[in-house]
## 1
Amino acid sequence: MKKLALIVLVLMVALVAPLFAQGGAEAASAGFAPSKDIEWVVTSSPGGGSDIYTRMISDIMTRLDVVAGQTFLVTNKTDGGGEVGRLQVSRVNAGNLANHTLLTFNSGDLMPMVKNTANRLENFTPIAIMAVDKQLLYIGEYSDYKNFDEVLDAVAAGKQVVIAGSKGDDIATYEKMIGELGVNQNQIAFITNDSTSAAITSILGGHVDLVMSKPAAADQYVVAGKLTPILALSKARFSGNLADAPTLSEVGDYDDVEVPVWRGVVGPKNMTAEAAAFWSDAFQAVSESDAWKNEYINKYKLVPEFRNHVEAQTYMAEFEADYLKTLGK
Amino acid sequence: MENLQLLLDGFSVLFTLQNIGVTILGAVLGLIVGAMPGIGSLAGVALLLPLTFKFNPTTAIIMLGALYYSNMYGGAFSAILLNIPGDSPAVMTALDGYPMATQRKRPGQALLTSNMASFIGGTIGMIILTFMGPALADIGLKFGPAEMTALLLVAMTSIGWLVGENPTKGLLLTMFGILLASMGMDTLSGSPRYDFGSIYLLGGIPFTPFVIGVVGFAQVIKLMEERNKKTQVSIEKLTIKGSMITLHDFKRLFFPAVRSGFMGTFVGVLPGAGATTAAFMGYAAQKSFKNEEPLGTGAIEGIAACEAANNGAAAGAFAPLLALGIPGSGTGAVLLGGLMMWGLNPGPLLFTNSPDFAWGLIASLFLANIVTLMIAWGVIPFLIKILSVPTKLMIPIITVVCVVGSYSTSNSMYGVLIMFLSGVLGYVLTKCEYQTAPVLLAFVLAPLLESNMRKAFIISQGSLDIFFQKPISLVFIIILIAIMVFPVVRPLLIRLGLMKRKAS
């Protein structure tokens, strides 16, 4: 019995001791510099796009040594589809903690947040936008159509065309596109999937006519010849193996449709302006680094587009206002 | 036999000291991670992923692949010994494993059966993967929304086997499971359902804490009732010798394992269906074959069927992942993310561009299979000592493990809360003699069924024709009708002398 008690006591001490080992030094900031661990919240699960983005940036920042040797603690908070994590970050109390908390925030996060909860951009401090993504429509090997003209002809003749895409930002682009084309949701139907890879699976099997995807997810299939881009949902054509896809204005008498998918970072509302400026510069340093260009942008085929905290604030606010209008709020 | 040659090349990639070392390491970690309730392959792979950045990609993926695969072995351990499945595919293993360990007093044999069945199922899966991997992946692609709906409807009928004597209760429980599963955000329309204004419920009820609660924590509550009972298994049997299975036992487990191995591999290839679905279907299919003891009372066939199926599915899941770059599950998605980080692109070009890597990985699965089997065998005597731990000590230990497992799914106490609530629910259900298996099965299958059915209807513009026009779907619909009609038709066939009356 005594031996057992001793073992239990040792275990308890071992478990509790680390709680006291952390302790952030509260440094007076004359010109902000990180002085404790930085908590970076990602509202999706490990291995996904946002997670890779976060870990990549934190890795590059550590390598570039812009965070005074402090450690990034990347935390995945996926409750409530990510809403809980966002709410928690927005409410971080003013003080040192607020200056050391970051949140990965994309357009695909803002849209459901604004649609389903009362949370708004004003509860955050925008820090930067790092990259922008846009979508294309692709056909598969079994598709009946060879280009987008044929798609439009089929719709005019009364046939239904089905597009598979992912939830979140793809839906907004789809709705804008059918609005521009003047067709309704039955003529060109959209099937929402949990992820783009599930959408691509369905077109590879020939179950849908078109798939909407950002360049990165579809790239390997384009190279292998299993997917062919037929429409660029942006104001200008893409480059590389996507250059053959026309924009909507080239197909007919339409305006170009694009709903840019931006990837950004925000902080809690109570982050100080100084800290926001510091982080903005840090992200700028990352965006200009070779590591970023080679290991992320080129690999995932994003469009690098850096906006600092002032520009990001305007951009995100405009995006939110536009989206709220489409929701009728 | 070009693939065989490539596989042998893969083995030569594998047999470096470093690669063999990480295979063993991955296998051991996977066993441990798999045995702990709630911490499954997803958590294990996600935790270890950053550590592997320093290795070269081949070594890293070999370690993660071994971990993912041996996780399926480990899940059975706590299922058999504690009636708490280590991960969701092990839920069905507990149904026969735990009674075999406690009521029939053959814990060592139960563990050995599960190990052997896992080995057989996994080997079958890997052989199929080697020779038919890309082709299998293409077949998987043919399963679109309509086909998946038909298949899942057949799978739902397997609930009928699990309801026991009272079909009304079973139906009620199934409906309840579907209701719980529908809480949260509906993917297809983007609108929240049953969230009651709570931001947490927007994400629905998380699966892993729910399962841990209903099966695991409910078991803990039940143990609290029995806390002063003496332990159930005498110490004499707790040696390797005492755990050996007889030749007769082996014969009993072999065919169910082989059958389920094939079935599990195939289900693992399908988009969206994973090891859990495979285990359910393997177990349900076993009901229609000859079993020496009735399923659910500790039959070897039951354990063999589920374990072989879930290992087969783990191997099968690599087919779409490697050949098409399509992850079949959350863990697959993490592996995929890792692959991309290392600069490899799984997809149609992987086998052509990086054959070393692809075949090295497949070869490592074979090795992991053997290594895991040996380690699992070796630890059986230690494991069954767990059964001799007094109940009142087990209760807090298991509770802590359940809490940690539920917390780790989303790094928040929400999972823990769900686990406690589900535990109470599971306990109440069991006490009132309701089965929990239909609830779990419905909870797993209903979201898949719903999303596929609705997608099928969008494609067909609301018409039912699509289910009958697509050949694969038609086949499954016919099977479905046959299953549904059979109990009604059976007495007629017996009367007509076309069937022998089953001796009761």
## 2
Amino acid sequence: MRKSLKGAGILLLLVILVVVPIVDKNTYHHIVLCQTLVNIVVVTGLNFITGLTGQMNMGTAGIMAMGAYSAALCSTKFNFPIIVGFIVAILMGLIVGKGLGYPSLRLKGVYLSLTTIGFSEITRLVLTNWVDLTGGTMGVQNIPWINLFGNKLDTSFKIYYFYLVIAILVTIASYRIIHSKWGRVFKAIKDNVEAVDASGVDIAKMKILAFTLATVLGCFGGAMYAHMMGYINPTTFTQDLSANYLAMMMIGGIGTVGGSVLGAIVITILPEVLRFMENYYWLVFSTIALLFAIFLPNGIVSLFTGNKLLKRFGRTEKSFKGEE
Amino acid sequence: MLQVNNINVYYGKVEALFNVSFEVGDNEIVSLIGANGAGKTTLMKTIVGINKVQSGNIEYNGKEISNQHAHKTVYDGIVYVPEGREVFPQMTVYENLEMGAFSKKYTKGEMDDHIAEVYDLFPRLKERSKQAAGTMSGGEQQMLAIGRGMMSDPKLLMFDEPSLGLAPVIVDEMFRAIIKINESRKTPIVIAEQNAFMAMSISKRTYVLEVGHIVTHGASPELLNSPDIKKAYLGG
């Protein structure tokens, strides 16, 4: 019964996602919807390291920036085909994941938060000041549209459907990972690190793996963002953005694919819906977000899974403070 | 099969083990007794590789394993079952057991065999296989922690305070299970216990730890009758 309900819910969400841009012809709305899909990809990645494994990653903005600039510079400065830009973005994700994960995840505690904040800020400053390569505060302009088998995706409407397919594939893949041996170990590390040690798991390796999944998807999301906007500049990738992704994950529901998707949708679209409040919209949005956090500690997704209360017997709270 | 030679272990600048030597032979149960803070847990964690050795060495079947990563030690066959029923509260009993086999690449059939073996030892776990481990009683969680330790085909099992906080009836059951594991699998077992009488009565040899030093060791039946041990650990 519950399974078929869940299936129906997913189908309904899919239908809405497919139909809305056809009914609503507003181009601005299309851009917001594309942004939503990009955010789904990024949050799904963040969920592996912060949601499942319980290691606070505060550098999503920097990671995305690396992906966005890799892709954008490949296709503008070096005139490579767009697909190469996406591949370079993925490679960049691997490099950042291993390079940042190796020194910070072999230690227990808050080191990942610290290194990721540092990394994110350094990335932003380098992008701002390396004017010859990145264009500095002027950003990278005229990033070409994606060319898919001869079809130029030159409107947000067309890009939307391409990104929808990508987002669906990413969601399915991450669902599979969460329900595999890997996913179980990720959850176990957050649950009870002592017992993971006793089970013969190489904890550092698994944490780095989870983090690399996050950075690869983060960089990929960044590349998607660059080709959707056609223009990027460093001021997009501030700590606010990183915090926003954490908010999406938490408000949607930590540790589940459904939560990541719902969180990305709600937190991206809600502020736009509230724009009629003009000066007060951000205040109202923050209040709503806070209420969600208080009354639905397990996220929006718990409305559907019936798991509304914070698990009493778990150790989630403890591991979340980074004490492990 | 396991030989610990004169190890010194520190937590930061504080020395926790002083020149400790310790030995486990094939197919024997060894108990490790001592008060809180004597270093029982530290010694076990050091053997498995969670703590580092400052000097001295640990040999396992002739192979040097001091300061080896814990996941490699588990792969070599030394399994440590931590104190305080460290299970994964949000996972089901079945998933907890699967986690225990992480270091091995079992086929589906081998996995089922191992799980069947654990269920055979603790039938209670079979009844609860689909239940979240965090919702079970303390005794059941301890059974699960022991069962999980057995999943990776251990060659040496180390139990840290298996009786901690359990009702007397459950304690008896736990020790019977430990004897059964030793007899049926021929696996040598190390038990660290504050419940000295229980541990000593099922073990062949006993080591007594006091603030980081091994003060005595010998055959358990003899130590059980020694006046000093009686006074210090067995309540007169």
